[in-house]
Design goal:
Number of helices: 11
Strand order of the largest sheet: 14-13-12-11-7-10-9-8-15
Distance between the termini: 37 Å
Number of domains: 2
CATH superfamily of the largest domain: Dihydrodipicolinate Reductase, domain 2
Shape: globular
CATH class of the largest domain: Alpha Beta
Largest sheet: 9 strands, mixed
Structural class: alpha/beta
Number of strands: 15
Low-confidence stretches: none
CATH topology of the largest domain: Dihydrodipicolinate Reductase, domain 2
Strand content: 15-25%
Helix content: 25-40%
Radius of gyration: 20 Å
Length: about 400
């Protein structure tokens, strides 16, 4: 007998939910039963799309007896409050990255879920993506020796997409450290084994009209001597999707002739209020619904250019597989196109709730990633190295049913 789908409730029908929506709708192990959002139009759209219950308040969603698991996709600053609400009602939780804006909040979330005897998972970050999971599995095979160095870079137009005012204010979770480094740090920690030791970083704020961090570079060191460089720019000039065959972050085909579009569209907007209206028009219920999503033509997700240097070869995860540069030959280990992109997030959640299998992306893992992100801000501000003390190791080899194609 097949197991029953997880009964999932959505807290926040914004951009995070919209990105995961086609995966949630297509995954056979998930049933969307309820949602909460303050916007009436979003609630009405959810009811129409899923014949499900919609609440105006997250507290009502957490108390809903239909709901087994709450997916918390509310703004960053509310994550602790909403996780604690879910814990009070004995619900398992998948909380969007970044986990929280302080380590104290991260620890409180872990403690509340532990007291409730429920699973806490942090995602979706790009460390769930199959190319990175497959690269980690190749590392675990020991065929290429130990990891010694990791290089990761990503150049995007992040800072020039329509934003609400708080998304341009670091203290409220804005800028590239909280929204983008959370991805890159998670990927690098997965590939490096998890337990980072220290970080030295510099950040860039180069546009007074976008007064938050738009770029960073960091050197992350691990306890075993492995080191990683991480670079990110959201200033909409060079686009590193050029290095990934013009496949976008979400696996979609890109057209290089669109160069400069983000800056040009932003320049036509008259002030912060209009920008916020344009941002809100791209959300669920404000003209967008399940009908506007599709899995067609979507490949594996990725987060820029990454190379893992091992003792006997370099491994490069890409949207189409893992490029392997061994001692005596170079070859591609292809990955079959995903039937349901990003399903790995939900597979890990189902394995925890239905089979009591500890997730890789636990609360402790998410807190360790946020410690690195916060340390990057501190290092850049003080101009010094920052030692890390809340790191956790990758507990076991990555296990996943990879669909590997022929060479």
């Amino acid at each position: 007998m097949s197991e029953s789908p997880l009964r999932l409730g959505i807290a926040g029908l914004g951009r995070g939910f919209m990105l995961l929506l086609p995966t949630l709708a297509a995954h056979p192990g998930i049933r969307l039963v309820a949602a909460a959002d303050p916007r009436e139009e979003a609630r009405q759209q959810f009811v129409a799309d899923f014949s499900a219950t919609a609440h105006a308040e997250v507290a009502a969603l957490c108390a809903d007896p239909q709901v087994e698991v709450v997916y918390i996709a509310t703004p960053h600053q509310y994550h602790r409050e909403h996780v604690e609400m879910a814990a009070q009602h004995g619900k398992h939780v998948l909380v969007e990255k970044p986990m929280a804006l302080s380590l104290a909040d991260c620890q409180a979330m872990i403690d509340s879920m532990r007291r409730a005897g429920c699973w806490l998972m942090v995602g979706h970050s790009h460390s769930f993506d199959v190319p990175y999971l497959r690269t980690r599995a190749l590392i675990d095979s020991q065929a290429f020796g130990a990891v010694r160095m990791i290089s990761a870079l990503n150049y995007t137009d992040f800072l020039y997409r329509p934003r609400r005012p708080e998304e341009l204010e670091t203290a409220r979770g804005g800028g590239v450290i909280f929204s983008q480094a959370a991805h890159q740090v998670d990927v690098v920690r997965l590939l490096g084994g998890g337990r980072a030791r220290g970080v030295r970083a510099a950040t860039g704020r180069w546009d007074p009209s976008r007064p938050t961090e738009g770029a960073y570079s960091a050197l992350l060191t691990f306890g075993d001597g492995t080191f990683a460089t991480m670079t990110y720019s959201g200033y909409a000039h060079f686009d590193s999707d050029e290095l990934s065959g013009w496949r976008g972050e979400l696996g979609q085909p890109r057209d290089p002739r669109d160069y400069g579009r983000a800056r040009a569209q932003l320049a036509r907007l008259q002030g912060a209020e209009e920008e916020a209206r344009v941002k809100n028009a791209r959300t669920y219920g404000a003209g967008l619904s399940l009908a506007d999503t599709s899995l067609a033509g979507i490949g594996h997700n990725h987060f820029g250019f990454v190379v893992v240097s091992c003792e006997r070869g370099d491994l490069r995860p890409t949207p189409w597989g893992v490029e392997i540069y061994a001692d005596d030959h170079h070859y591609l280990e292809p990955l079959s196109p995903p039937a349901i992109p990003r399903r790995e997030v939900l597979d890990e959640l189902i394995a925890a709730v239905r089979h009591d299998r500890p997730p890789i992306h636990s609360g402790e893992w998410g807190m360790a990633t946020m410690e690195v992100c916060l340390a990057m801000l501190k290092s850049a501000d003080r101009g010094q190295d920052v030692t890390l003390s809340h790191q956790v190791s990758l507990e076991k080899p990555v296990e996943y049913n990879f669909e590997v194609g022929s060479r």
